[in-house]
Structure prediction request, 85 residues.
Amino acid sequence: MAKFVKLPVEIEAIDVRPWDADRTAEWCGGTVIRNGNAHCLGIDIPTLEGVMRADVGDYVIKGVKGEFYPCKPDIFAATYRPADA
Prediction:
C-alpha cells in the first residue's frame, strides 16, 4: 500500500461555543440545537454526506471547496495549526 502526506491547505474554522452558536450556525448554514432550557447543545450542519452534528467544543471547518463539516477538538489539534499571518 502506498503512503501519502496531506497537502498544506489553508481552511477557515470556528469552535462551537454556546454564547456564539447563532453566528456559527449562520456562517455554515446550520441549525443550533438547544435543550428545553434553551442551552446550546451543538449545531446540525448540512454536509456533503448529510446533516452532521458539531457538539459544543467541536470545530466547524470550511473546506477548500466551500463545504462545511464538524471536527472533534483532538483531531483538529493534531491536524491543523494557525496560519502564518
Q: What stands out?
A: The radius of gyration is 14 Å. The chain has a mean pLDDT of 93.
